[in-house]
Amino acid sequence: MSAEIKQAFGIDVVLVPGSGGVFDVKKDGELIFSSQGCGRFPGKDEIVSFLTS
Questions:
Q1: Are 8 and 48 in contact (CB under 8 A)?
Q2: How far is 19 from 3, CA to CA, in rounded Å?
Q3: Is it the case that residue 53 has pLDDT exceeding 80?
Q4: What's the predicted TM-score (pTM) here?
Q5: How many helices (H) and strands (E) does the chain have?
Q6: Each residue of 1-49: pLDDT tens digit?
Q7: Which of 4, 33, 37, 39 is spaced 20 to 30 Å from 21 by Cα?
Q8: CB of 25 within 8 A of CB of 49?
Q9: Gap between the Cα atoms of 49 and 8, Å rounded
Q10: What is the dihedral of CA 22, 39, 29, 44, to 10 degrees?
């Protein structure tokens, strides 16, 4: 997923290790995807779609 984001936007992704199976994606400090909130892991290109909208 980080490779998709880098290819689409030319930016590096920062991984912040956590626990409990939480997978959150934030852009400029704003939560744009939460696996806990959605009950699933994001699909292919889903995060890139969120970032471009």
A1: yes
A2: 22
A3: no
A4: 0.70
A5: 3, 2
A6: 888 888 888 888 888 888 888 888 888 888 889 998 999 999 888 888 8
A7: 4
A8: no
A9: 10
A10: 100
